[in-house]
């Protein structure tokens, strides 16, 4: 097996360890159906040489998960997934390009020899179960250009290659399902559980079919549009000649002939190996389209405003259904088009892609089980954290005190978020910005809670929201006080709300659980309900709620003139970076939104009641799509042997239709039907009728589902065909590699501009960092390893990330070294010289300075001598300036 920790684009030093390989089929009864090899100790290139593992495949939806695991922790190092249709498609692809292939060999299924050989499989990390959508769903791998989810525990991303494993494969399809005189029925694929991602994939499959129909219509329109005069004239001549010379008696042969000609074209495409390339090209086109959505479509500079917001406390926050307190938290959301009508929304979104969705600014921690919470901490959202990393200038993120702020407010928690000035809309290309006061956006504070009867986080109860128009914040700049919650739906408000109105609770009587008193004046005020009448009944206090639910909010907004300005190029680049990240977040949120609004207890009960029906609709929709796609793939030589059988059958049908007039065939078919019913009605004796009726009833009672051998062979024939989803999964990772290479080209140009204009980096590049690793008791070798990294020098600090992609995505850096005081280049110690190889010593650079834990030294390995010299020169230049 190749290096377990070798990277996709370049190799990395070996890591020794103890490993074993495990193979688990899906739907095979759980872990007891898995097989494993022996453990190979202390090597990064284990040779398992395991015994042959044989698995019986119950249906065409079975998948095989191949894992290489660390024997010391039993955690997967990497996973590869083989699908049944993927294994069959591998044989079909090899067969389609095989030399000496003839139609005769294709028509004989028993002549098919199983393809056996060694296959090199990629071991990927970051998938949850390793089966189905978890492994083949790009939507679950969110991130930057290719959208990949973060694996915080190991610092890796879902889908990253951790190594390769070589497997000797032999997969044999049972041809008796089609060729046997009395074949068995091939079991169908088991129904899927309800899955929102699966519904989205079904919708995408419908969209793909619609797109294919549109492409066919576009091709026809192009054929008759005279855009290519020679092609249109040729089609006209063929059409006129056919209409004049073609005998309409044989019109039935015409569509069959056209289908045969189209299959001949598809067979040529398959033979040339372009069938797989078309699926890969689809992924590339989808990546190009996705990057277009993420790109900034305007050229005008958009100033950046600074929003500071904090939610400090609340009162009278009870469930509207049951009047119970809950575990409360507040979310702060920026909606750029909150108060725009539907027509204006479409116009704005067309001009400004970042308005496609809302942006989560941050949220509070839970306030405990109380109706009068005090929130002591605000947590930044993922989008805010990424923006913070993407903007290296600290002036924007540094706290700034307003003139009218009280001294005690300096320690209040807040979240800072950038807001771009609104663009002109309704034009093809926006060329100017609009005044801040004209923005239809709003800052929304939503109060949600987990009540004591509903602990499902997906269905958090939306208690209410406070809507603060940006136009008001621009005018007042600073707002603080108690705000009443509104019942407005999340996207339902089309006019600026009146803040004096709020949710009026009906009179409820609940047990009074008095909160503990706090010394802070603001907190004591927050804990006091607005309107309460307390009466005592025995040992329990009874509280009657008659007030409004309210939250205490502090929010400020500053336009660019209120904070330190950067140079023109850096300011423009920062605006572009903010816009790109907001567009990415808006598009990701729009694509992955669940679509459930409200989500109170009653809503949850409704959804739960509909769960079985939704699952039934999901599976029925999937079954219909499978049939449609299999019917189409039977003609495009996705399975060359089965398409060849269809081609031979259609050829025979065409010959019959070309020889016998269609009118006569229709006449014979109609007369045969009438003759059969006439015989049953008038010529068949009563005794024969009774015998036939008794035989039919007996047959139904014995085996209601028994089919004729011919019908079984036809059903098995179609069941074994791949669907478009099978083909997508077969070529998924290969297509993603092509798409990733395209993304890297686009990302490289953006990265260069950002590093020069925004970061003002004196040096940047890809290196390797010496990192310590944990050795188990039975392991030997180096106690450290070289880890790939992307690093730069900005100002007086050296910063590094796990990869260029992590830097592009705004991930937090792995470390910082500040060149302050005693800092700069360091020499190799005797221990370093003893541990390093002669090839590594000339390429090693040692840097020391102030790190996260005081004075720190790091050892770097440059890929070339030129990169090492450039890095040392940059460090010396920064150190000299520091001195």
From TrEMBL:
Residues 7-21, 516-537 have a biased composition (Basic and acidic residues). Keywords: Membrane, Transmembrane, Transmembrane helix. Residues 1-37, 514-537 are annotated as: Disordered. It comes from the Eukaryota. Pfam families: C2 (PF00168). InterPro entries: C2_dom, C2_domain_sf. Residues 18-88 form the C2 domain. The chain crosses the membrane at residues 250-267, 643-660. This is C2 domain-containing protein.
């Amino acid at each position: 097996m190749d290096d377990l920790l070798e990277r996709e684009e370049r190799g990395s030093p070996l890591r020794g360890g103890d490993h074993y390989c495990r193979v688990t089929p899906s739907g095979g009864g759980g872990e007891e159906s898995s097989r494993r090899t022996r453990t190979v100790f202390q090597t990064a290139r284990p040779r398992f040489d395991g015994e042959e593992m044989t698995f019986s495949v119950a249906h065409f939806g079975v998948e095989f998960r191949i894992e290489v695991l660390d024997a010391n922790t039993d955690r997967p190092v990497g996973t590869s997934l083989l699908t049944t249709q993927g294994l069959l498609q591998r044989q079909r692809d090899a067969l389609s390009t095989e030399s000496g292939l003839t139609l005769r060999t294709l028509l004989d299924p028993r002549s098919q020899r199983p393809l056996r050989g060694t296959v090199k499989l990629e071991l990927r990390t970051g998938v949850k179960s390793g089966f189905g959508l978890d492994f083949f769903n790009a939507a679950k791998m969110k991130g930057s250009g290719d959208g990949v989810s973060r694996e915080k525990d190991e610092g890796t991303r879902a889908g990253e290659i951790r190594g390769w494993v070589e497997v000797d494969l032999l997969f044999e399809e049972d041809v008796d399902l089609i060729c046997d005189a009395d074949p068995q029925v091939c079991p169908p694929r088991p129904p899927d559980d309800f899955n929102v991602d699966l519904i989205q994939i079904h919708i995408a499959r419908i969209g793909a079919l619609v797109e294919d129909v549109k492409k066919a219509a576009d091709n026809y329109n192009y054929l008759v549009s005279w855009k290519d005069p020679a092609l249109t004239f040729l089609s006209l001549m063929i059409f006129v000649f056919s209409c004049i010379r073609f005998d309409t008696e044989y019109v039935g042969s015409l569509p069959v002939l056209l289908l045969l000609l189209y299959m001949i074209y598809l067979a040529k495409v398959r033979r040339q190996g372009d069938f797989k390339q078309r699926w890969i090209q689809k992924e590339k086109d989808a990546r190009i389209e996705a990057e277009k959505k993420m790109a900034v479509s305007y050229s005008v500079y958009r100033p950046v405003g600074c929003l500071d917001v904090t939610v400090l406390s609340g009162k009278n926050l009870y469930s509207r259904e049951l009047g119970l307190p809950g575990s409360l938290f507040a979310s702060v959301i920026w909606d750029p088009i909150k108060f725009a009508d539907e027509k204006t929304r479409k116009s704005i979104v067309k001009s400004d892609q970042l308005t496609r969705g809302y942006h989560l600014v941050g949220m509070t921690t839970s306030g405990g089980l109380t109706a009068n919470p005090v929130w002591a901490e605000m947590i930044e959202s993922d989008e805010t954290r990424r923006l913070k990393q993407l903007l290296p200038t600290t002036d924007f993120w540094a706290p700034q005190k307003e003139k009218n702020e009280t001294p005690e407010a300096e320690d209040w928690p807040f979240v800072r978020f950038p807001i771009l000035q609104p663009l002109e809309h309704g034009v093809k290309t926006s060329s100017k910005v609009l005044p801040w006061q004209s923005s239809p956006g709003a800052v929304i504070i939503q109060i949600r809670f987990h009540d004591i009867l509903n602990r499902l986080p997906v269905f958090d109860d939306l208690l209410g929201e406070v809507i603060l128009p940006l136009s008001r914040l621009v005018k007042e700049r600073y707002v603080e006080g108690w705000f009443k919650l509104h019942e407005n739906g999340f996207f339902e408000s089309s006019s600026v709300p009146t803040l004096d109105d709020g949710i009026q609770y009906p009179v409820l009587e609940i047990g009074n659980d008095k909160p503990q008193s706090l010394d802070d004046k603001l907190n004591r005020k927050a804990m006091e309900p607005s309107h309460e009448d307390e009466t005592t009944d025995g040992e329990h206090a009874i509280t009657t709620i008659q007030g409004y639910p309210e939250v205490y909010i502090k929010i400020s907004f500053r336009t660019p003139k209120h904070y330190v300005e950067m140079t023109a190029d850096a300011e423009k680049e920062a605006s572009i970076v903010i816009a790109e990240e907001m567009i990415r977040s808006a598009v990701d949120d729009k694509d992955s939104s669940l679509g459930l609004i409200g989500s109170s207890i009653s809503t949850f009960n409704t959804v739960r009641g509909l769960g079985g029906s939704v699952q039934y609709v999901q599976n029925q929709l999937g079954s219909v799509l499978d049939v449609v796609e299999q019917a189409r793939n039977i003609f495009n030589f996705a399975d060359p042997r089965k398409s060849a059988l269809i081609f031979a059958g259609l050829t025979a049908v065409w010959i019959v239709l070309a020889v016998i007039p269609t009118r006569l065939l229709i006449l014979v078919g109609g007369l045969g039907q009438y003759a059969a019913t006439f015989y049953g009605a008038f010529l068949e004796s009563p005794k024969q009728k009774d015998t036939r009726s008794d035989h039919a009833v007996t047959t139904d009672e014995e085996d209601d589902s028994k089919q004729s051998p011919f019908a079984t062979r036809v059903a098995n024939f179609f069941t074994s065909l791949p669907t478009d989803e099978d083909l997508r999964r077969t070529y998924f990772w290969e297509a993603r590699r092509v798409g990733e290479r395209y993304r890297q080209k686009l990302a490289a140009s953006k990265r260069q501009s950002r590093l020069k204009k925004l970061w003002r980096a004196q040096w940047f590049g890809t290196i390797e960092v010496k990192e310590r690793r944990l050795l188990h008791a039975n392991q030997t070798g180096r106690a450290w390893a070289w880890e790939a990294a992307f690093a730069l020098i900005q100002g007086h600090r050296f910063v590094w990330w796990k990869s260029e992609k992590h830097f592009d995505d705004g991930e937090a850096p792995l470390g910082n070294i500040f060149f302050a005081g005693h800092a700069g280049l360091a020499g190799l110690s005797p221990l370093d010289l003893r541990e390093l190889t002669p090839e590594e010593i000339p390429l090693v650079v040692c840097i020391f300075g102030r790190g996260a834990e005081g004075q720190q030294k790091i050892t770097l390995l440059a890929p070339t001598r030129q990169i090492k010299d450039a890095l040392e020169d940059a460090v010396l230049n920064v150190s000299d300036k520091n001195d």
